[in-house]
Design goal:
23% helix
Length: 368
Amino acid sequence: MQQAPKKLVFENGRTFYGTGFGADVQRVCEVVFNTSMVGYQEIYSDSSYNQQMVCMTYPLIGNYGMAAEDYESRAATIGGMIVREYNDSLANFRAAKTLGEEMEDAGIPGIQGVDTRSITRMIRSEGSMRAILCPAALPNDEALRLARETPLPHNQVASVSCKKRWHVRATGMRYNVAAIDCGIKLGIINGLAQRHCNVTVLPYTTTAAEVAALAPHGVLISNGPGNPEDVQPVIALVRELQGKVPVFGICIGHQLIALANGAKTYKLKFGHRGGNHPVRDERTGKIVITSQNHSYAVDAESLAGTGLALTHTNLLDGTVEGIENAAQQLFSVQYHPESKPGPQGSAYLFDQFIANMAAYKAAGRQMQ
């Protein structure tokens, strides 16, 4: 059911009017944009969007509903959704509820009928910024004050990481993987399980001794939200683990591996979000189209002297997309090899992780 008129007031003073859907609540968030043409359910349920409001550039959202099999987390923590046109027809035999119903149940607001193209161009030009989604009747002066004075969240991984370990068992198990949950996507876990890996998902505060007690053949440092410099427990963990067991990092996991080795990270002007980013593998020259979702990047110049080699480069802006220390069986990528939503050309990275674990297992090695 369509709600009363709403508006978005950005901290630069720009105002956009529309109507609400989802939860009828007021909220201030950082606004980012996503260029994917499909996959709004995976975006909605991706913990890397924790407390961010996402402007979808594709104009029609909601038209195939929400399917139980397509969630990327157990509970959505996205701040809100901004769309050009919302449609709540369930034109999908797998759909169990509408996007609006899901958002209402989860307490997440949305706004439709706004000029998403204009919002995207503004963010691309001026950078990501805060905005308030509020009733249209709220005075603009008050809305602008709230948008400017509400602080952005910190240490967001702490709010999305699991509180206790949980397990996924694979058919024909060959390898045990310890996955450090910084906001892990279920698609990553499924990608490992499909390759015969039992996965134990662990809180971000897990110690090296606790990981060693599981006798894993490999450790995954997952995707997640926010500033990687806030996630000191995982930075310390990587320093203790690398060289002792194969390690694979994805998204913020990639940034945390870089920080653990002495490299630096920085915040991008408007981030990378969507399934259409070309990335070149510097080892082979092969170019793949990738799915991405992040606000921070690894500083390329800071890799010098860290022992980390550049393996992948973003062809749109030259940012670092992959690094490795082959001698330590340590590697990471900024983008998502499971690509939900998005292209499937990067699944070979899972196979690289499997190959490292196979060599580790064949050598009879074990974490001490």
